[in-house]
Design a protein that fits this description.
about 130 residues; elongated; alpha+beta; 5 strands; 2 helices
Length: about 130
């Protein structure tokens, strides 16, 4: 981008005169905007980027229902997959973010559960179609 030395408007690099005031852009230098890193966390309320603090510290939970239906591994996945609660510094909104452990836990969970669900669907469909 070329910036006009007279009016300050940004113009395309191929232009020789400013679109706003017509000043010659030959003697101005090309300004390259620095590449901004992709934000890791964006507030869903106000859009603030990477501006948060730990909101509510969630404790580990134990659920008898999860233990009964899924066993100890299900309890571990349940605790590891929980989102971390944070609070936006700009607007004060509370929201959840996924930690690397929760992302990994979710991936492993679906890699283990998806084949079971697919087999179950095929068994039910074959039973339904064989009538």
């Amino acid at each position: 981008m070329k910036v006009c030395s007279y009016c300050g408007r940004e113009n395309d690099a191929v232009l020789t005169a400013c679109r706003e005031c017509g000043t010659s852009l030959r003697e101005t230098e090309v300004i390259v905007a620095p590449v901004q890193p992709k934000p890791k966390v964006v507030c869903p309320s106000c859009g603030a980027r990477d501006d948060y603090k730990t909101g509510i510290a969630l404790r580990g939970s134990f659920s008898w229902l999860v233990l009964l239906f899924g066993g100890l591994i299900a309890v571990l996945f349940h605790n590891a997959s929980r989102q971390r609660r944070v609070q936006c510094n700009a607007c004060g909104a509370l929201f959840g973010i996924r930690t690397p452990l929760s992302k990994l836990s979710l991936l492993v969970f679906w890699l283990l559960i998806a084949p079971t669900l697919i087999v179950l669907v095929f068994v039910l469909l074959s039973a339904w179609l064989s009538r």
